[in-house]
């Protein structure tokens, strides 16, 4: 048995308990968890049962780093003792792929070695948010820009593209700015508090619009060169997507990627924007084919080493401390700026 922080009842704080040490199946490994990061969905799981209401007790945290302890069948990518980081599955029926415990499972297709000169703590801040935004920008189901390592990327004119990021200052928004800058998108408009303006511009935003402005739509359309020029929007924060739907083109095709479950396409049609499409990104799972997924995970560490993707600010909680980890989950309530917590389970 091992120690774990458990959600035993929805709406109640996490509490320390024990559960079995998992065994790895094919294409999976067991890691001794060195670092785990909680995200807003973990708060929604604890408080409202998101993903977990039918399989309690559950364990939060799907961003996981650790030392490989045991290899499942057919694992050739890793060796025992190697430090790796990756993402577990929040929808899995058992909480084996969760980080707030001493040992966890990571799938080989959703993980990578911790790169030289970076720590487990640093790399654990990336997986779910970076993967979600990578899908939002580069997967055909969402905005569909050619992925940076794809053959199309060699000839695609990224410089002519315009991208609007609603929630530029959120952790996901910052990844969106950096991925867009990395491929060379010419106009990157972040809607955010102006307190973060300079930092977001350093990351790659070409324009920052005050999220409290009464004229956001007009300002975006002016920057893009007209109402029909607003065609690619990622909304990392809202639940109603009104702003995104209002700003996109009426007569030209447009795409909106959002991070909460929604059929934006149907809502756009009701507004007379029948060329628009949009839906929620499922960043918790592997959306790519095997080769693209492999290239993404191989590249992420390289992009970090090259300084193209920055490690977000984080703080450390030592041990499976019920009080401190519950407070870290509480900090996500209300969509305020948060310095994310990285937890050392042992
Ligand atoms: N679908 C998926 O797979 C997936 C994956 C990852 C995350 N998510 C979800 O995406 C959401 C964002 O996650 P996160 O970790 O990036 O959040 P976060 O960093 O905790 O977001 C907080 C930030 O959002 C900004 N914000 C709040 N309301 C805003 C608004 N109306 N307009 C513009 N900015 C606003 C605030 O920025 P200011 O400082 O500018 O006020 C604040 O700093 C969460 O709900 C999360 O659950 C979904």
TrEMBL record:
Keyword Acetylation: no
GO molecular function list: oxidoreductase activity, acting on NAD(P)H
Alcohol dehydrogenase-like C-terminal domain residues: 173-249
Keywords in alphabetical order: Oxidoreductase
Residues covered by the Alcohol dehydrogenase-like N-terminal domain: 26-115
Name of a matching Pfam family: ADH_zinc_N
PANTHER family recorded: HYPOTHETICAL OXIDOREDUCTASE (EUROFUNG) (PTHR45348), ZINC-TYPE ALCOHOL DEHYDROGENASE-LIKE PROTEIN C2E1P3.01 (PTHR45348:SF2)
Sequence similarity: Belongs to the zinc-containing alcohol dehydrogenase family.
Protein name per its UniProtKB record: Related to alcohol dehydrogenase, zinc-containing
Organism in which the protein naturally occurs: Phialocephala subalpina
């Amino acid at each position: 048995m091992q120690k774990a922080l458990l959600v035993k009842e929805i709406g109640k704080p996490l509490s320390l308990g024990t559960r079995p040490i998992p065994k790895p199946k094919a294409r999976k490994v067991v890691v001794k968890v060195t670092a785990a990061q909680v995200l807003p969905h973990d708060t929604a799981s604890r408080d409202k049962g998101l993903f977990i209401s039918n399989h309690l007790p559950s364990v939060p945290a799907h961003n996981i780093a650790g030392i490989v302890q045991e290899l499942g069948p057919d694992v050739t990518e890793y060796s025992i003792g190697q430090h790796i980081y990756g993402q577990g599955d929040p929808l899995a029926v058992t909480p084996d792929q969760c980080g707030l415990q001493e040992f966890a499972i990571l799938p080989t297709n959703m993980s990578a070695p911790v790169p030289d000169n970076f720590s487990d703590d640093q790399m654990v801040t990336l997986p779910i948010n970076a993967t979600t935004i990578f899908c939002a920008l580069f997967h055909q189901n969402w905005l569909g820009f050619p992925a940076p390592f794809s053959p199309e990327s060699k000839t695609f004119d990224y410089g002519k593209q315009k991208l609007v990021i609603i929630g530029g200052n959120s952790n996901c928004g910052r990844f969106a700015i950096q991925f867009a800058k990395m491929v060379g998108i010419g106009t990157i408009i972040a809607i955010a508090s102006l307190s973060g303006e300079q930092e977001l511009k350093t990351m790659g935003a070409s324009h920052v619009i005050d999220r409290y402005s009464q004229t956001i739509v007009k300002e975006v359309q002016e920057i893009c060169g007209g109402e029909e020029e607003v065609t690619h929007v990622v909304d990392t924060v809202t639940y109603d997507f009104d702003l995104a739907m209002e700003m996109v083109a009426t007569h030209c095709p447009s795409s909106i990627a959002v991070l909460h479950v929604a059929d934006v396409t149907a809502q756009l049609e009701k507004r007379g924007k029948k060329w628009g499409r949009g839906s929620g990104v499922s960043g918790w799972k592997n959306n790519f084919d095997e080769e693209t997924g492999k290239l993404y995970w191989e590249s992420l560490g390289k992009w970090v080493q090259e300084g193209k993707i920055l490690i977000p600010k984080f703080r450390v909680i030592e041990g499976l401390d019920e009080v401190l980890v519950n407070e870290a989950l509480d900090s996500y309530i209300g969509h305020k700026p948060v310095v994310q917590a990285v937890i050392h389970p042992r």
